What we know:
Blueprint: E1 2-4, E2 12-13, E3 18-19, E4 27-29, E5 42-52, H1 59-65, E6 71-80, H2 87-93, E7 97-100, H3 106-116, E8 121-124, H4 136-145, E9 150-159, H5 166-183, E10 195-198, H6 216-228, E11 233-240, H7 251-267
Helix pairs in contact: 5-7
Amino acid sequence: MHVCGKGYGGFNVTDNNIKNIDFSTQCLQGGEESGGYMGDKLPVTVTVILPTRNEEEALGPTIDAIPRGWCKDLEIMIVDGNSTDRTREIALEKKIRVHLESRKGYGRAYRTGFDVAKNDIIVTMDADCTYPAELVPTLVKRLLDDDLDFITCDRLSLAEDGSMSGIHGFGNWALSFTARMLFGYGIKDSQSGMWVFRKSIFDNDAMRPTNDGMPLSEEMKILARRVLGKKKAVEISVPYRPRVGEAEIHTWGDGWKNFKFLFARRLGLHRTVSPWGGRESNPDSLNKDLPEQKK
């Protein structure tokens, strides 16, 4: 049994870093332990979105690592892309929301999840034990305390040994460097998938990402800096840890798509393939119409 996010001390969020936290072990073999938040309950509602496809090995520990009881209402939701393993069953066993999105793509899952999330603050991360789920309350508090609209989490500064292969590390650096050169937005990690933001940013159509694939990650940061501004959209360094389970990412194919998107976006040649938001026909555990709920 894996345990994600074991062990951390006091919280101290500085301008661009999170310090004084013991991140010594993230995914362990052994008993269950979830992060605890020691501050006052935050007066906001929060949805944590986890895009999934065949994440049965790490989904349970990822869910368990998200602290509870620290905000007015916490919704944890997977947006599942037709998993063929027990991903959806595990989510239902953990009593979290499951939204099924048959249209393919990492970006497509988020463009649906952003729309159907029911709460005011949205937090995103992967369901593979790589991101520090125990820091979700701290990051949300930072968003509120500093009156921010968007936080993206830099993985590169505090990445643990073994969390990223040499080729992935180089690819992330190359993509991030290219994005900074093309857009001048000052983001260190263009590919991070952990963000904390107000759902209301999408009231402005200009802030809605257009890409259904992996490039949505870099697009979110480009839009946030351009539309919200550098004072409202900031980057904070957090730990990044070794993945649990097999990755769905295709190193060369996804990397090339990311590079192409950066130049297409800069030249205004990118296209929106599918409309914003979810579909009424998408099965959702709230409606009790998932295939697993009909058995």
